Amino acid sequence: MPVVSLRFALGTAHSNYILDGLKSLDIYLKTNNPKDFRPTFRKKTCKDVHYFPDASFTSLDVSRLIFESNQAQTLCEYHRKGKANTFKADTVTELWSMGFKGKSVSTATEVTPPQEGHLHCGCPIREVAMEFFLWKTTCGLSSNPGLAGWIYAMKELAKQKPSTRSFWNKSIRNYTGLQAEDLISPDYGSDLFELCITLIQLHTQIQRLRILDAPVVVHVLFPDADNGNIEAAMVEYGIEAEVITKAVQLEKYWKELNAKRSVIPLPLITPTRKD
Ligand SMILES: [Zn+2]
User: Fold this and answer.
1) Is the pLDDT of residue 5 over 60?
2) 151 CA distance to ligand 1 centroid (A)?
3) 72 and 160: one domain?
4) Is 121 inside any structural domain?
5) Which residues face 140 on adjacent strands?
6) Which helix (H) or strand (E) covers residue 166, if one does?
7) From 162's CA, which of 28, 96, 121, 210 has a CA 20 to 30 Å away?
8) For residues 70 and 35, is the Cβ–Cβ distance under 8 A?
9) How many domains is the chain partitioned into structurally?
10) How remote is the CA of residue 99 from the centroid of ligand 1, in Å?
11) pTM to 2 decimals?
């Protein structure tokens, strides 16, 4: 599978530093104590697009923690570097993409719990986490034919305004049906991850065809899932190795998608010209 790993571009010292970050994160995942995922690694993860991409697809909780300061205050990069007038709140006429008016305080004693689902700056955690994931994992090619073959990482997370961030979040979610929780998964990079991401989009498009009463019938089949002769022990092995039970796993996942996931029509605006 053509997975592009940005780590290959890094030197040994950098790789060791990444391993230290990984160890620090692993300790946090066992203890759930934010201090164990050391702020020095969290800050570097936000500043350097090449550094420790795993932090962007471990969990929503870890993505939130990346933006938590020593004072336990969570601010997105835009608001951490911004001035007081960058804090706004959505109104009935303006979507600033900040659900609530946040603030930045200077001491730990002034920090109060943020609104549910939001950072202290008022930005929704899911949108900040999805932007962070896309920033860390997206590879780009230049439009210049002379630069064909070069792969580039993304730059400048800090300059994304919440409204710009929300624009990309909402566009991607609307057209693909993918949510932040689908993308932020510790099995990112595996065949199974890519298959599940593709199935979610397939489910979204099939459901939309049904909503539209489109004259098509789509049956999704997992032929190998019918093989009932696999020994239980082999099934267990297969789950670990992601080999034997892949079709069974995918069929189970597909059934879950159909049972639990609701799909809405693509939210289109009313065109000005209708003829
Ligand atoms: Zn923010």
Assistant:
1) no
2) 29
3) yes
4) yes
5) 152
6) helix 162-176
7) 28
8) no
9) 2
10) 10
11) 0.86
